[in-house]
Amino acid sequence: MKLLLIMPRFFDYPEIIIEELNNMGYEVDFFDDRPGTSGIVKAIIRVKKDILKKYIQKYFNSIMEKISKKKYDIVFLISGQSLSFSEEMIKSIRNCQLHARFILYQWDSLENFPYIKHFHKYFDKCYSFDKYDVKDNANLSFLPLFYCKRYEKIGIYQHNSFKYDFCFVGTAHPKKYKFINMMSSQLKEVYPKQFIYFFFPSRLVYFYRKFKNPEFKKSHYNEFHYVPLSGSELNKLYEYSMCVLDSPQAGQTGLTIRVLEALGAKKKLITTNPDIVNYDFYRPENIYVYKGKIDLNNIFFKKPYMEIDNIIYSKYSLKSWLEEILS
Fold this sequence. Notes:
Blueprint: E1 2-7, H1 13-23, E2 27-32, H2 39-48, H3 53-67, E3 74-79, H4 87-96, E4 101-106, E5 125-128, H5 131-136, E6 141-142, H6 149-156, E7 164-171, H7 174-187, E8 194-199, H8 203-212, E9 224-225, H9 231-239, E10 241-246, H10 257-265, E11 268-271, E12 287-289, H11 310-314, H12 318-326
Parallel strand pairs: 1-2, 1-3, 3-4, 4-5, 5-6, 7-8, 7-10, 8-9, 10-11, 11-12
Helix pairs in contact: 6-10
């Protein structure tokens, strides 16, 4: 089975997904959904991608030249706010691969990524990680994100002592930046060993955010990082952290990838997403929902991590995720 995968280069997730697809028997061709991964290209695509219209078209033409020589069984698009392709481009891929099944997975909320609605008609199956988007759109099916094998391995070999009480790694969206800093400050009494890694795809995005968003008015340039952590660095960080902090960006109700990574690694989690209590893996001993103030008398701070049923745990693995999507 030949599969065409189009998705953002988010950390090393394309390689992880491709490896799992290969294990399942698929021959995979992968293309980034952006014409480049430099900081300035990432920034412009997020802010005003029309500026790069000719550059994107040239990149897309090069893709079409390659894929038009092949016949795929499946075309799999994992879309997010980085998607640079237009509706006409998706239509061109569809017309080029008339016998392929087209599958879309939305990794971002429609509120933050509204134009993806125009793409739905070109796909045979459409999934979203956001149950509220699914509720309002009959052509979407709900499917949360996943954890991969490296987090499963961390969950198996737990340490008795930790270098960090908690860690946070994520893009510095305004709401996220605000709440992670609030949690960090309020947790210093009980969790003094903290690792926080706020990431911007480029310095240009930082200055844009500082100018546009009040949350960043008092921020400092050196608070942020402009190079993402590698997969091995993330692996070590989760391995030696007791707890993971999480806060979705504004307009997002679906669970972030960090939540699923914490689940896979069997780490405690503190999140600002109130909808997490409605998921089958929720346990108050393991997950604390932050609502603006830390309650140190909560069971979360009194009890150790509680193992969840293996049937529930395994259904959020990458393999299960792909089996559901490709079934």
